[in-house]
Specification:
323 residues; alpha/beta; eight-stranded mixed β-sheet; 11 helices; 8 strands; 35% helix; globular
């Protein structure tokens, strides 16, 4: 993306999500990041060498110089200009980071297998915090169509996954993930554009997690999309934080739920056609945003990079299930 009226105000590249899952990592490619505003310069090759795994890009966000709104996240579907700009951005991102892209040619020391073949479109579009002013399946369907068109101009083999959705947004202008997906599938021609669906089935206990995942799988199957993959795009609990949150546990409780959740997903992998599971998040961090007070303590590592009980449990899980 080369038009840069906001470039002077942009700071270093911000990755809005660091999601770690042993054999993969999800990175949100924010449209406002200078990586793209400056013409898609390479992001950290050190990071890619470190993870040595498949990166799953999450393409997400509309900069204020496109949306005209610096306070909210809006979908880039209002008018021909916004849609054209989004298509240009998406095509540029795929041309650079998709299989055979410029980034990999410029960094031959990186294994070519790192190039992502699956891209996740947006984040929690069923909640107004990420689709202002209110969740809108029809608008998201438009975004899915123009994204597919843009991707196909570069690499038709790339798969598109519906952005991860939390089951029950608290804002009344949100839509449950089950209802949002059901309405999305009713849009003409949409099923053929969906290669997968991502879930963020956050819940205080395992029963709540399972119920959300089953709901989405059932909607997909009833829409005739049984072959579409299901991704657990985010799952996690915190080891500290506001006691009022059902997602805040003790360090031991976080580790116990991590193991239980992954055991559940592994046992139902074929039944639910689960392609991947991503833990949120890799490391604790300072500060808490208004939309996620529990998130800063959700890491597998402490802020000082020391393994928490959840980190040790995750390492044992990988050793047992993968190695």
């Amino acid at each position: 993306y080369t038009r840069t009226p906001m470039l002077s105000k942009l700071r270093q590249l911000t990755l809005t999500h660091w999601i770690f899952v042993g054999m993969g990592a999800g990175i949100a490619l924010g449209w406002t990041a200078p990586e793209f505003a400056a013409g898609l310069k390479p992001f950290s090759t050190i990071f890619l060498r470190m993870i040595k795994s498949i990166v799953v890009p999450i393409i997400f966000g509309t900069p204020a110089f496109i949306s005209g709104d610096s306070k909210h996240v809006r979908g880039p579907v209002k008018g021909e200009m916004q849609r054209a700009e989004w298509e240009q951005f998406t095509a540029a991102a795929v041309a650079r980071y998709g299989p055979g892209g410029d980034f990999w040619a410029e960094n031959p020391s990186l294994p070519p297998g790192l190039a992502p073949g699956n891209w996740i479109l947006w984040n929690e579009q069923n909640a107004p915090a990420f689709w202002h002013p209110k969740a809108n399946p029809s608008q998201y369907a438009t975004l899915l169509r123009i994204t597919r068109e843009a991707v196909d101009t570069i690499d038709p083999s790339i798969e598109l996954t519906v952005g991860g959705m939390y089951g029950f947004p608290q804002n009344p202008k949100g839509i449950t993930s089950k209802k949002f997906l059901r309405q999305l599938y009713k849009k003409r021609g949409i099923k053929k554009l969906i290669d997968g669906v991502s879930a963020h089935p956050y819940a205080g206990n395992l029963a709540g997690v399972s119920a959300q995942v089953k709901d989405l799988r059932r909607v997909m199957d009833r829409a005739g999309d049984r072959k579409a993959d299901l991704y657990i795009g985010e799952i996690g609990w915190a080891s500290g934080g506001p006691k009022r949150s059902s997602l805040v546990k003790s360090q031991a409780g976080q580790a116990r739920l991590l193991k239980q959740a992954y055991d559940l997903f592994l046992s139902r992998r074929r039944q639910w056609n689960i392609e991947a599971v991503y833990w949120f998040t890799w490391r604790d961090y300072a500060g808490a945003g208004p939309d996620c007070a529990w998130c800063p303590k959700a890491g597998l590592l402490s802020k000082k990079n020391k393994r928490k009980p959840a980190g040790r449990a995750f390492e044992k899980l990988i050793d047992k299930k993968v190695a």
